[in-house]
Design a protein that fits this description.
The complex is a heterodimer of chains A (248) and B (368). Chain A is α/β, with parallel strands linked by helices and 248 residues long. Chain A is built from ten helices and ten strands. Chain A is 38% helix and 25% strand. In chain A, the strands form two sheets. Chain A has a six-stranded mixed β-sheet, sandwiched between helices. Chain A has a four-stranded antiparallel β-sheet with strand order 2-1-4-5, with helices on one face. Chain B is globular and about 75 Å long. Classes of the chains: A alpha/beta (248), B mainly alpha (368).
Chain lengths: 248, 368
Amino acid sequence: MSVTNLLYLDGVSVSFDGFRALNGLSLLLAPGEMRAIIGPNGAGKTTMMDVITGRTRPDTGTASFRDEHDLTRLDEPAIARLGIGRKFQKPTVFEQLSVRDNLLLSLKGRRSPFAVLAARRETSEEGGRIDEILAITRLGEHAARAAGALSHGQKQWLEIGMLLGQDPELLLVDEPVAGMTDAETAQTAELLCSINRRHSVIVVEHDMEFVRALGVRVTVLHEGSVLAEGDLASVSQDPRVIEVYLGR
Amino acid sequence: MTGVRTTALACVVASLLLAGLNLLPAGSALHLPDFAVGLAGKYLAYAILAVAVDLVWGFAGILTLGHAAFFALGGYAMGMYLMREIGARGVYGNANLPDFMVFLSWTKLPWYWHGFEHLPFALLMALLVPAVLAGLFGWLAFRSRVSGVYLSIITQALTYALMLAFFRNDMGFGGNNGLTDFKDIAGFDLHARSTRASLLVLSALVLAGALMASRALLGGRFGSLLTAVRDAESRTRFLGYRPDHVKLVVWVFSALVAGAGGALYVTQVGIINPGEFAPAGSIEAVIWVAVGGRGTLSGAVLGAILVNGGKTLLTGLLPELWLYALGLLFILTTLFLPRGLMGLRAGGMRRLSLRLRARSDAGAGAAP
C-alpha cells in the first residue's frame, strides 16, 4: 500500500461572520512527516486544526486523509477513530479522573458505550501500555492522582500521553510548550521527535527556540493561507515572513 | 459511591422490620399502624425515582426537570393492569370495560389497553414505555447537542405536555380522575395487611436492585467515561467517543428505573392521575437529590426519604407552609450544603482525619 499524501488540504476557506479565518489554504503532509506550523495570532492555525478534526466545516475546499477519506464529511469522533489525534492549546484532561484512568480512556480500542460497559477494568495488556506511557511522559509517580491536581506542564504531558494512548497515525499538537519552563520545553521537543518515529505530527507553536529544536520543515501561515514553507533557516530569511513577524 | 451496598441493605432490612412490626397483633406496644406501611412504601418508590434522577444529574450532568414523566408512565402501566384486574366488580359491573369508559359510553376497549390484563405484560410495559420514550427524546436531544438549561427546559415541556394529554378524557386513561379504585394484584387483596407488607418489602428489594445495578454501571470503565463526558464532553469526541450515545445509555436506564418506581408507587398509593406529571413533581425530585447529596446514590435515597417524611409531617401540621419550607430547604442546601447531607458526612470525616493527623504530628514532636 503506498499512500503518497497522509493529509491533503486543498483551497480550504472558512469564514466566520465575514471574517476569513482560512483563505484558500493548501497543505500537503507526507506519511511519517513532522511539520511545524508558525504564524502570528489570527493566522488561522487553530481553525486549520478545527477543519482537520471535523470541528469546523470549510465553506469551500477539500481535506482528505490517506487520499481516501474526505474529512469534510465526517464528524469529530469519526475522524478520531480514523486515526487523527489532537492536543489542545489549553490542556484539557479529565480533571476528576486519575491520571491512569485518563490514559485508560484514551487507549486505542472500541468506542461504543456497550463495548466500554463490557470492558470494565483494565486488562494486563492495557496496564502494560499505560505503564509505558506513564514512563515516557514521566508521570509514573502521579498515576493515582486526580488529573486536576497536576501542574500545568504535567497536564500538557498527560494530554500528549493520551494522544500516545490513542496511537493515531497523525497527531495535531497545538502550542504544546505554552507556559512551560525552558527545561520542560527542551524535554517536550525531545518527546515529540521520539513520537515522530512512529507517528506523523503537525505541531503549531509560537516558540521559535522550540521549533528550531524540532529541526523540521516549517509552514508559515498568514491571514489564512500559506505564506512560506521550508526549513526554519530559509523561512526566517524570507522578507515577507520578516515583514509579517516584525513589520507593521 | 461509598456505602451504596450498605444503603441497599439498610433499606431491605428496614422494610422487613417495618413489615414485621405491622404484622404484630394490634394490641402490641410495638405494632406499626397500617398507614405507616403505606407511607414507607411510598417513600421507597420516591427513593427509586431519586436514584433515577441522581443517575443522570449527578453522574451525567443532565439536570432533568421532567423525570416524574417516566415515573408516572410506569405508574399508568401498572394502573392499567390494576384497572383490568377489577373486572366485573366495578360500579357498573362491566367485566370488559373499566368504569370510566362505561361512564364515557365507550363500547369497546381501546387497542392500547389490550394485554394489560396480564401482570407480566403490564410490568414489561411499565419499564418499556418510559425507556422507549426516553430513548426517542434523548436521541433527538443529545444528537442535536442540546444541553444545560435548554435541555432542562425541554424535559419540563415533555412532562407538561404529557400531563395535558393525560388530562383529556378521550386519551383513554381516565382523564382528570386517572385510574383508581383498585381491588387486587395477582389475586391478592390490595387492602390486605400481608399484601401491603409484601409490596413494601418488594419496593425495598427493587430499590436495592436499582442501587446495585447503578453501582455496577458506574463503577467500571463506563463510569469513568461518563465522568469524562460530564466534565469535558467535547474532549471525549476527539478521543473518538460519541458522548450523545454515552448519555443516551444512562438516560434510558434511568427512565427504566423511574418507571419501576412508578409501578410500585401506584400499587401502594392506590391511585394514579395526571397530577403525577406536574412539572413541580419533577422539581421536587431534584430537590430530594440535592438535599441528600448529588452524585452519591445513597444521598438520593436519604434525601427522598427525609424530605418526604418532612412533607408528611408538615402538610399534616401546617399545610400552607410546606411549599415555603421546601423552597427554603433548597436555598439553604444550595448555599450551605452544596454536596448535600452526604457531603456533610464526607466533610466531617475529613475534618476528623485532619484533626487526628494534627494531633499525631504534634505528638511526634517539634522535629521536622
